[in-house]
Structures are given as structure tokens and as C-alpha cells.
Predict the 3D structure of the following.
Amino acid sequence: MIKLCILGGGFIGRFYAESLIGRRGKDEVKVIYARREDTAVRFAKDYNVPHYFTDMEAAIAHPETEMVIIALPNYVHEEAVHLCVKHKKAVLCTKPLGRTAAEALRMTQACEEAGIFAGYLEDLCYTPKFSKSLASVKAGAIGRVLWAKSRETHPGPHSDWFWDMEKAGGGAIVDMGCHCIEISRNFIGKDILPVEVMCWADTQVKPIDAEDHAIGLVKYENGAIGQFEVSWTFRGGMDLRDEVMGTEGTIWVNSWLRTGFEMFTSGNTDGYLVEKAESSSGWQFPVGDEAHELGYTSMFIDMYEAYEKGTQPQETFYDGYVVNAIIDAAYKSAKSKLWEPVQLTEWRGQVGVKKPSVFTEYDADHWLIKEEILPNGDKKVILKKKITGEILELETWKKV
Amino acid sequence: MIKLCILGGGFIGRFYAESLIGRRGKDEVKVIYARREDTAVRFAKDYNVPHYFTDMEAAIAHPETEMVIIALPNYVHEEAVHLCVKHKKAVLCTKPLGRTAAEALRMTQACEEAGIFAGYLEDLCYTPKFSKSLASVKAGAIGRVLWAKSRETHPGPHSDWFWDMEKAGGGAIVDMGCHCIEISRNFIGKDILPVEVMCWADTQVKPIDAEDHAIGLVKYENGAIGQFEVSWTFRGGMDLRDEVMGTEGTIWVNSWLRTGFEMFTSGNTDGYLVEKAESSSGWQFPVGDEAHELGYTSMFIDMYEAYEKGTQPQETFYDGYVVNAIIDAAYKSAKSKLWEPVQLTEWRGQVGVKKPSVFTEYDADHWLIKEEILPNGDKKVILKKKITGEILELETWKKV
Amino acid sequence: MIKLCILGGGFIGRFYAESLIGRRGKDEVKVIYARREDTAVRFAKDYNVPHYFTDMEAAIAHPETEMVIIALPNYVHEEAVHLCVKHKKAVLCTKPLGRTAAEALRMTQACEEAGIFAGYLEDLCYTPKFSKSLASVKAGAIGRVLWAKSRETHPGPHSDWFWDMEKAGGGAIVDMGCHCIEISRNFIGKDILPVEVMCWADTQVKPIDAEDHAIGLVKYENGAIGQFEVSWTFRGGMDLRDEVMGTEGTIWVNSWLRTGFEMFTSGNTDGYLVEKAESSSGWQFPVGDEAHELGYTSMFIDMYEAYEKGTQPQETFYDGYVVNAIIDAAYKSAKSKLWEPVQLTEWRGQVGVKKPSVFTEYDADHWLIKEEILPNGDKKVILKKKITGEILELETWKKV
Amino acid sequence: MIKLCILGGGFIGRFYAESLIGRRGKDEVKVIYARREDTAVRFAKDYNVPHYFTDMEAAIAHPETEMVIIALPNYVHEEAVHLCVKHKKAVLCTKPLGRTAAEALRMTQACEEAGIFAGYLEDLCYTPKFSKSLASVKAGAIGRVLWAKSRETHPGPHSDWFWDMEKAGGGAIVDMGCHCIEISRNFIGKDILPVEVMCWADTQVKPIDAEDHAIGLVKYENGAIGQFEVSWTFRGGMDLRDEVMGTEGTIWVNSWLRTGFEMFTSGNTDGYLVEKAESSSGWQFPVGDEAHELGYTSMFIDMYEAYEKGTQPQETFYDGYVVNAIIDAAYKSAKSKLWEPVQLTEWRGQVGVKKPSVFTEYDADHWLIKEEILPNGDKKVILKKKITGEILELETWKKV
């Protein structure tokens, strides 16, 4: 059993609590910290937490605090981590790890030097669908990964600080791009070096300084390409989709808006309220167990198991640092309009990984480009001469 | 923390264990019973269970057994329940409760007389999608339920005794119809009396005596209709779908074959094995966390919480009895080719529930049948005169 | 080029015209008949038809009428056909052919005796998806058909006479069941004898005498089963789905509500009107070319080609008669609560077709029931002893 | 009736013929030209064409040729157009119009100067789904378009010249990007100036010089962004999807791989062949009427109607030129790694279109950023002070 202290009583803190409560888990939230007392009191009451504080350090230092879960706005992550280091408490930090790679690296190094357990709460790398698809990729089901795209769009976040560029560290990219980047990295391989980033970002709709819509491409050393699509301007709910192309297959994951659960309601009935949907009548697409589908339950299981066994969790602070470095490059690129290098002062993966040749030999003199059966039944083979590079096609008339 | 004894080390026993293990739960399997020693030993090793037995009563009577989970073939359920009663152990029984309503009623009454906790392990009434859709129905999202269909088809079960009519108590109806019937009952209302059943059943493909395909209709006292479609002849995987029509809406749930997770694999890669699919290449439709999506985790949480609080679980032995009574009527109907009454010697719900009138008044003299906008923009109102019953339409030319 | 006369200027007559107009076809509507003069005038203007009449016989007899398309209420079909016979004009009749099998048989025989071309306008047996799936079934893609279900439900038809039991000949069964029955017949084989019908029907919601919801099962001589689900109480649009199970495969067709075209609209924009949807905001599921997707264009092409070549179209009056005979049995069954025989005074297909055995031999002594790989990697084979009928399983431990 | 001459007897020429034949159209193919005599003879026989040639100019000049349809490899388009100009024949040209904008502009100007009818055969801007979604966008259903993405990926084209960079003018971008670019242009507005392009392109798998995978972003003057994703490395069939985000809504179109038609086949039946799929067993996703779903029939109807009425078709040579100019910029960008300007020597649309402000006023002092109901029922309003830019949130506790 692990005794937990949650820092932050807002949306994400409550979601973390929901994923622990009522599931017959052996781990318990013992301490809650919130900036405002009414928030802390309410949280303590709602989730049956014995101790509440409005002083962050007091919460961390409390003897019932064995592990700290940081569920605070981005601009307070580093301070919270340093307090955990000071008090030698294991620490889990919500996404993004930092507002910048510099912040993230300091947090990573501080924990490593102090020898405390640190986990990066990247929930979307723990959803049941993601876990199974990653296992399939690792088992070779789709061959070598060529492209890994992740998309997260919705009509915008739920707290004021997200919309404040200074406090959040940016807009939709830092808020949601962090998920998408880490999803792509997992599919392509965490030990493959991200080389450079091209990013388009704009403020298309909202009255804010940060971007509300962005699209980015991340080149990896082995020739694979990562792509993220993020927006706070999407209409119709929350769109969470991943797509992966490999030399031998394809993966499509829809985590939220189309999951095999559809409901039509005329809106003529009293008292029925559809939560978090853009309309309260018409076709709705609910999600069964939201906390589980978003990966929260599996994420905490991995964290607690790793902590108890003394191993690394799947998502570490170092991973959070790499993500931040890619985000930094994305913001630079959005301004410079150039492909910007990913600056990693510390790289723990492979280097010098080349794009492998996957040419298929047709015979001693030719590479095979393609074989196809045409609608009228004809069969064609398209070849390339190895020496001259000339392209030619052979036909086998099937119909006479 | 509850100390558990699982009876049965086969497919379903292992699935139950999977849904408890590795999820940081506080409840523990302490005892395993299997008929064959090698099965018991393997189970104990795989799931770290301290005590194993090949003598069922010894397992139940063991001091570390606080609650018994029956994961045995249908023909042993009653015997196992009576042993739990004898030793005053709380008991959970897999579906179907009995092979017949008579068996189920004896099991229900024995537990109630002994005052032991008894829960009916109807997992498909605990899936995240089902739970949320049932909550929506209860909140009035789709108005009054008119029709509730549930379908479960796949290429057939995994153990010999399922295919033996005597041991199983029947074929696809008793194996899978029990799920479908209880799903419909939940949507229509568990306190609404099931009145009569019409069922078609046939052995279309398999070399067995029992039915491998069946379709049934269940009439409820309030005019709602339940429908089940079950088959062991389906090709393409496992098809688990529910559809509900209400006066104000519709629900469609696809629990297995189309859940927003799609994968194509060329089959050219070595070493990759697709489990439980009919082909190892081409488009695949995996399910993320199978145990969770099938309702196992939520089901056990409900059972354990109810046991500790001293309340009834959502699915009780009495529910299992009602399901068996409907199945009995279905088998009778399949033979007699008649609508057969559901024989419930004990009914604990409402009686005399009439189909409510839901006519909409257009004006003092007319009922509204329908209002429609035609493709060319015309609008029509179709009415019925209250007194004469005459039907007429009024048009409003929108285009001139 | 064929010169056409359309009888009926309402919803269906206009839909037929839409599927001919603006597609660069060589066939032309020359004559329109409608009961009310304003309807006829409007139709003639909208579709550029040179001649209009409010006298049906005058329209049919007109020298510019080469072929008559009956788009009239059910109770006028027979009269219209007899007038075509009298004037020796080729005739196409909308669905259902008659209100009863007796009507349909008289119409069929009258045309055959007169030697005039007669086609049954069963559009849903001509949709692009249906045509391709039927071709796949005939090519053996799913083996022997075991079950063919077709479902059509929506919130009710658009004209007064549909709701009048006398004029329509019934309710949802005769209106939409006719489609479903003929779809199933095509999949199972038009030459396979439909033997008996069980039908549940009820008036659940609407203030009418006819049924607004019905479910029926149709047994065929070869052991296959047809199923229809029809309703005028469905909420959420129009649900048109077919499902077919065969010994070697499965077909699922969704023709209307989920076809890969999805739109969300906030409803905040002025002047935008969603036609034929139940709500004007939220998620919408439009259909591209409605007339084509409903089979109208392909249906008329088949009819005109057959007429010019002097062959039979795919759907004949005789097919319409068989459908009516099945509907008659369905209505009888809904009242008698018995399986009612399909009474065909004239049967032109095969007789004495038995259900073939499809047992798979495992070895000389055993039938194979099933082979399965379990989640833990074990493989099982379930067998039946040919002589004793005993069922047993063989296991191959994959994991040690 | 229009008399047609098709240039090219290969895959696309045959597809064009299929979309005209057997649909009772009044237009007729009178002349076929192919480079190889056997191809010409076979085409003439298959589609009942009276005249065939292996001399292109002779085919164009033939008195039965009223309109020419160019279905030739990219490198012959310009030559063919100039011959049509010389002989004053109306001309339709397949996509892409040219290999470069320079070619396309010469073709456009030559036809305009000669006063001959010229249509650009951009079929994917004529699919039933596209047409209806474009109409919805124009009617305001999704507000102002912010982003329009189009994706076309499959395992590679069917003729040798596609794979030859010189003959094709490039790889996947020029082959398929032309579709995607014109789809986005239509959604965003054809009169909105495309300003600059960023493109990533690589040869990831195939043994060719041209790119087999590319992703591009196109900035439009009004702030909208177009995106194309093209690949010849996709596994699993052909993926044709469009996604549009607007200020008031969303459109998702799947034109090929998921259209509501699904089939499973075990592969155990003899003689059944699945055309154009990557595997002949397992789950298949066929398309009903391929020519219609790909827009061919609607495209030719528009072309012929426009020709007869003397108006412009929806897709003109000028549109083809704009597309080529965007492709040119894409290729430059893929090399330079910079955003490259779209160079249009002639622009016929609007200039100086600014991104409109769509801020929503909350009260005199505040802009509204967002309103949200949280999972626990709380409601929040997030605002921005107009003067200071400060962001704040107001809460209404719903639960006490």
C-alpha cells in the first residue's frame, strides 16, 4: 500500500482521484493540497482524504505522504518537484513535465541526483488501446514504422491558467502536443533520436496570445516521421485519434469520439443532462469508463508497481524532458518558419541509426516495385532495372 | 480485503483471476480448486495462490476461504452452491446460474434461507458501456423503452462440456442467451414481468445435439419486447452488440468487433501471433483491456462492495433464476413452436403494468401522427380525427 | 429511348423522377398523372413533362406512353395494372406489389397472360452495396447462407394513406417488411421455398390501428432463416441495415445512417437547414447521392435494359407475389401467435431442398467441433466420437 | 448527345469508359486512341467503339470526334491539348493537368485563346459525399473553414510511367496531392489566394527516385490552412479521407475503406477472388458502385452539361493550373526545407482577404474564452479582460 499526497484540487487532481477511488485499490490518498481552502476542503470531503493543506510544503513534508502526485498548473511543476527532492518523497508529475526543456531537465536531474523515484504521468501512453497497439508494433505486426500521427483536438481547456501563455508555457502545443509527441515516440522507438521539427501554429479563433491550432512534423534519425495535430478550436466533442503506418501494416485508434457506443436522444425528456457534449440532444457518443479509457488506472498501476519493485516506470521524467525539447523546437519553428533542430543536451538512446533499405528483389537484374490485379482481371508487375534504373511493366493478360 | 476461493481452473476461472491480478487490488485469491491436479497446480503457480485442492469441499471449507467464486461447468453449479451453504461461505456464481429455473430457484432459496451473501456473475451487465447506457436510460435519455435487443455470436465455446447438452443444459441459448436476456431485462426494467417467449432454434452447422443458432422474442407486461440473437456459427470473431429503441431515443453498443481500434497486418512478419482472431493477417479489430471491457473488473468491485456493506449486488441469484425461467420458456417454445409463458413461481417485481398511451394531441379534435419536411421543402402534418379515426394530411407549400 | 408515363405525383413519384432527371439519360418522362390537378401541374413543371392528366386511364392510353411507372398508394396498384394490361403498355410497379398475395397474383397473371413487360420496383435490391454483396454471396465468399436479416426503421411514412390500414393493406410490415423479405430471399436464394413465418407485431406508439413495430422470422426449406425488423417508432433518422451469416463468412451493410460521412454543426449559423434529420444541430450523418444509394438509378437501368432486350428484370411481379405471400403469413402469425405456412398457389423454384451436412472430419473416428488458441497460448481441439456421440477435448500445452 | 474520343486505353481510360457505359446515357464514345494497337483493339471491342487509332492526331481530327477526353500519362497532356486546339475540339484532361505550373498555364491559355471548351477531370471533387459536404459548407453549416485536410494513400499506382519521375513530373505528390489540394481549395474557397507551402517528402520504401510519402501544409490568405497527406507505402487498401474544421462545425468523409459495407470471408471457398484488396480472406471493405463513389459519373455529367450550355464546368483548366502551382511550391519546399511562396502569374480570385475576428463578447469589459460544465456538475466561465488582457475564471458551484 502506498500513501499518496495529491497537489492540486482542480480538474486533473479530481480525475486522478476518481481513477483511484471505488476500484478496491490498496493505495490511498492521505493528503491533499490546494491553493484555496474551499477547494481543499471539498476535495477532502469528496474523496475521504484525512489531511488537507493550503501550504504545499507542509503537504509534501507530512509523515503520511509517501509519494507525491503533482496535479498543478505547468508553472508550478518545477517548484513542487524541488520540494519533493528536499523532503525525499517519491514524485509523479502530470504532463507536460516542464514549460521548457530547461525546466524539465533540471527536474529530471534533481530527482536523479537525489535518488528519488520519479514518474511522468503521460496517461495517453497507458490507454488500453495504446498499450495493445504498442505491443503489436513491438511484436512486428506492422513491420518498420514509417509514420506515426497523433491528434488531440477539442473546444479548449477548463481552467484560466491554460489560456495564459506565461503560466502554461504556450498554448495547444504544450497542452496537448506533449501527448501526441510521446505517443509517436513510443511507436517509432524511444531510443530513436528526434532530429528536427517543422511546425505551423496560429491563433485562429480564441481571444488569446497563444496558439489555438498547430500542426507539426518531427523527423527521426531512422527516417520515420512523427506528426502532431492539436487544436482548441475543434467542434463536436474531443477528438483523440492515432494513426500509424508501417512497412507491413497500419494501426488506427479512435480513443474517444467513435468507440462503438452511440446514443440518440430527442431532448424531449426532462432532467437528462449530457455531460461534456456540445449539444444535449441528437446523436451522442459517450465513453464507458472515462478514467480507464484515458489510461489513468493503468498509468498509476505501472507507477506504483515500479516504485515498489524499484524499477523505472514506462514514462520517466527523462521522457518528459525529450518531449519538452521537441516542443521547444516546435515553438521555434512556428516563429522562424524553419525546420528547427531538437536540442538534447543529454541523449540516452541510439545514435547513427540509418534508414534501412527494404527493396524487394524480383530477379537478379530487377527490383520489384509493385504487383497488381486490375479491375478487368489483368495482372501487372512493375519493375526497376538495378543497373540502369529504368522502370518497366510486365503484363499477363488474364482475359483473352 | 476479501479472501477468495476460486472453484475451477479453466478458461473462465483464469479470466476471473486475470481481472483481479495486477490491478493493485486489495482482495486476494487464497484457494484454488480444480478437478485435475495439473490444472490446479498450474493455476496456483500462474496466479500466486497459496492453497490448491482437487477436493471441492475441502477448498470451500478452508479457513482462508471467505468467499467462493464458482467458475465451474453448468452441471456442477448447484452442488457447489449447496456446499457453500453448508459451510456458510459467501458465494458468487458464474452464468448461467442453473441449467433450469428449478435448479436456479433451489440455489437462490438455499442461500437466502442460510443468510449467506450470493452474487450472480453476469459480467455483460457490468461493462463500462452497458453501465453508462443503463444510467442514461434510467435518466430518461431515450424515453420509455420499446425494444431491447442483445446479440452474442462467435464460432463456439472453448471446452468440451459446453457442447454436451446434458452437462451444459442446452446449447447457444443457455450459454449466451442468458447474457442477452439479462441485458434486455435491465434496459426494460427488472421489475417488469416477462410474460411469454417465442424462440426459433436450430443446429445448422455443428455436429452436436444442442442448438448452435437461436433467435428469441420475450414479451414484457408493459408492452416492451426483448430480443436475443445467439449463435456458435458466426464467422469473423465475436459479435457483441446491444440495440435499444425508446420513444425518445436509441442506443447502439458494440462491445467487441468495432470499438475504434483497427489494425492491418500483411502477415509477412515472423513471430507475430494474433490471438483469438480467425485469421492472422488482414484487418484485425483488437480490444484494449479485454477483462475490463467485458465487465469483469466492475462486476467484482460491485460484488465485494455489496458484500462488505451488507447490501445486495446489482445481479443477484434471483436475477439468475428469472433468466433461467425465460430460457426454459425459450426451449419449450423452440420445440412446441408456440409462444410459451414464462413460469415464475416467485415474482418479486410489479404486476399489472399496462402499456401507457403516448398519443400526442395536435388540437382538441386531432391526434398528431407525424410532421415531416419533404426533400423539396414542403412540410406536411399527418393527423387522426379523435372521434372518427379518419386519417388526413395538411400541407404547407413552402415553395411556390 | 423509352417514353415513360408516371402515375402519381407524390413523394415516391418525385423520387423516381429525380433518379432519371439530370443524369444525361436517354429515357424521358412524357406523361404524368396525379389525382389532384395542382400536383400534376407542379410535377410537369418541375420535371419538364409535356403532358399531364388527372384521368389515370387517359394518361396510360396516351400515345406518348410506352411504359407506365406506378407510383400510387397500395390500394390503387391493381386497378392501374389492369389498365396497363387493357392498353398493352409495359408496366413497372412500386413496392409492395399488392396489399395481399391474392391481389399480387392477379396482377402477375394478368400481365403474363397479356404478354406485357412487368417489373417490380424493389429498389433496395438494387443498391450498389446490395448488388456487390449479392455477387459476393453468389461467388461463394461466405459459403452457404445460414441467416439473412434486414432491418428498416424510421419515424414513419410521409403520406396519410400509409397510416390507413385499409388503403395500405397493413402497417410497417407491408410498407417496409416487403423490402426486408425480398433482400433476405435474394441472399438465401430466390428458388428456395419459404416455408413458414412467425411474426410479432404491435402498435406501441402511434395512434393508429395498424402495427408500428414488427419482427418476423421466415423459415426456408433448406434450413436457412430470414429475419425482418421494421418500425415506424425509431428515433434518430432512417436505419437501413442488412446482416448475413454464412458457413464461411459474414456480410454487414449499413445503407443510410453510417456510411463514412459525418458532420457536426453547432446550429449557430443562419439559414442552414438539415433535411430529413431529426435535429438541425449536433452530429449529422448525410448520404451523398440519395437516389443512387437507394438503388433507384440501377433499378431503372435494369428495367429498361430488360425491356429493350426482351428479357426478365431482376425483380419481377412474381417476386412481388412471393413477398406478399410471406407478408400474408406474417399478419396471420401476428394474430394467431403460431408459425403460419406461406401459401403459394404457384411455386416456380426448387422443391425438396434439404439442409446439407457440413460436418468436418477430424479423423476416421471423430468429427471436429472446434479448434481454439486460448489467451494463455494453449491450443485445444474439441471432438465428437462418430459412434458414441461422446464429446472430448485434446489439449496441447504451449506453455510449460 | 456528345460524340467522344478517348485518348489512352489504359487503367484510367477504361475507368472513364466504365462510368459512361451501361448507364443508359445518351453520350457515346466514337473514337479510341492508344499507343499500342492491341490495346486500342481490345478497348474498341470491350466498349463497342466504332473507330480506333494508334495515331493520336488522326483520332482527334476524326469527324466523329466532338470532344476529346485525355486519359494519357502526364508527360503527353500538353501535346494532346495543343492538338485539340489545332483541330478546335472541346477537351477534357485527366489530373494532374500538367507536370508543372508552366505546362498547365500554357495549356490553359492555349484553350482560352482558341475559344475551345476545356474541363479539368478532378473526379474527387465530384463524389456524392464531397458534393453534399461542399454544399453544406457553402450553406454555412460549419461556419468559417479553419482547416481542410485531404488524405490519399494506397500501395502505389498501376503503370510504369507513374514511377518514372521525368514522365510523371514527380511521385506521390503530383499523382495524388493534386486531388487533395483541390479538395482543400474547394472547402476553403477557390477565390482565396494560396500563399505559401511547407512540404516534407521522402522515399521511404520503394526503389525509386521520386517521393513515395509526403505531407504538406498550404497557407491561404484568409488564415485557413490546407493539408495533404499522400503515400504509396500505405498497407491495407486505399485510404481516401477528408476532414474539415470550421468555427461552427466539423466534416469527416471516408470515401473508400469504411463506408458501411463490411465482409468477412474465411478464404475456404474455391473460386472467389477479392479484387484490389491486399488479402483474399479475413475482413474486407468493398465499395458498391466504384465509378460513382469516385465521382466519375457526376464529373462527366457536369462537363457535358456545361459544354452544351456554353458555361464553365466546376473544375476548369485554370483550377488545374492553380493546383500545379501549389505542387511546384511543394516540391521546392521539400528540397529547400523552407515555406515556399505559391507563384501564380495570373490570379483570378480575391486579394487582400484578412482573417476575420470572431471574438465573442461576454460583457462590455470581457471577451468570452470558454464556458464548460465539469464532470462533477460545476460550471465555469473563462474570460479575458479586453483592456489588460488578463485571463480569469468565474465559477458557479452547482453542487453544494
Observations:
- The longest strand of chain D covers residues 145-153.
- The two ends of chain D are 75 Å apart (CA to CA).
